[in-house]
Design brief:
This protein starts with 7 loop residues before the first helix and ends in an 8-residue tail after the last helix. By secondary structure, it is mainly alpha-helical. It has helices at about 10-20, 25-35, 45-50, 55-65, 70-80, 90-105, 110-120, 130-140, 145-155, 160-175. The radius of gyration is 15 Å and the shape is globular.
């Protein structure tokens, strides 16, 4: 059976709605999370530009792809039609990055491991927020074992955050159903 394809521009808007909904909404929550992930970064820089650290978006993509695999596949296939978001070479980069992420998870705190992996995934390309979400989705399907290991760590160490992100993603999916794939 052929998977449906969503208009790539619509897929891009859904992706942005997903990661923005999955990430901290209040300024206080944003600042607390930033202190945990990147205490060296200035929160004002992100708050003024309505932006997020790209590693948060990669993390949101991994959580989303694990929780809503079929929908995430449709979104990824649609985003592949936009070379500014998901590129052909991303598969090769993700193939080499999976074992590295698994080994980093043994050596580094999980947040540092995903930051290093996320940076590697789009090092030689535009580093936009939607690109971070696209490479995260791509990684999730190329490296499902590494993704499951990572998401399980997030689920067990940051349960409330994980559950809030899954609930936020589910709300977006309900607003934007794709050929009966509501989850």
């Amino acid at each position: 059976m052929n998977q449906p394809i969503v208009d790539p521009d619509h897929a891009l808007r859904i992706s942005e709605e997903l990661f923005r909904g999955m990430l901290p909404e209040s300024e206080g929550e944003f600042r607390r999370e930033l202190r945990v992930w990147h205490p060296e970064l200035d929160a004002r820089r992100y708050l003024v530009s309505h932006s997020y650290p790209r590693c948060w978006i990669v993390t949101a993509a991994l959580i989303f792809a694990t929780a809503f695999t079929e929908y995430a596949r449709v979104l990824l296939d649609s985003l592949r039609l936009r070379p500014d978001t998901v590129r052909e070479g991303d598969v090769r980069v993700a193939q080499t990055g999976g074992p590295a992420l698994l080994s980093l998870l043994d050596e580094e705190p999980w947040r540092k491991a995903i930051c290093a992996t996320g940076s590697h995934l789009y090092f030689f390309s535009p580093q936009t927020l939607t690109r971070a979400f696209g490479v995260g989705l791509n990684f999730a399907f190329v490296q499902p074992e590494a993704t499951r290991a990572f998401v399980e760590i997030v689920r067990s160490t940051a349960t409330a955050t994980h559950d809030r992100q899954v609930a936020a993603a589910e709300a977006v999916i309900r607003r934007h159903p794709v050929s009966g794939h509501a989850g």
